[in-house]
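Q: Make up one entry.
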Amino acid sequence: MTTYWPWWAGAVGLALVTIYHALATDRSFGVSSAWDRVVHWRRERRLERMDEEFADDRALAEALAAATAEHFGPGPSPVRQLPYGQPGTLQVDVEPPAGDRPAATSGRPAPLFTQAALLISVFVGGLIAAVTSGRFELRLDMGPGFRSLVTADPVMMTVLLFAGGVLVGFGTRLAGGCSSGHGLNGCGRLRPVSLLATAVFFGTAVAVSFILWKVI
């Protein structure tokens, strides 16, 4: 383990990536959600084009008002009634300034290009780290540890890896995020569901590692 970075350097690097992504995009990031959107890029691009049509809050409100008036007919003026017996004049609701209204795009995922760039950066970063450390090697198996602990049969290895990948994908979607989404972003924002999910992630990893190395 001496050839790896110290733990604190990795923690600082992950924290900087998380903070920079949040500041640059005003959104959280997760590898599993990015992968899902990139794989279904046609659907996501179509949704992005639909979002662009209603990016302006005023245009969206006017379109909804016009559609409502066309379907139900013109309605009464938006007048706010004063309490009975209170002197004064009737107050007409005034639309708040643009800066006080929530943005129409708030809460939406990061652009598809941003998430594709995230996945490419993860691959390129890992490749650079492996090459510069002198440990880059192309191989078709999981190494001697996997062969001795699990199986050396290439067919069985492929089946197990495929089944494991399916289970990881199912669990990730069921939990609403992966270790990056919950562990880095959610825990950093003290979200209870992320704290619980991360505890389950790492607790299961510790248990499986113990079974593999100490029991089997």
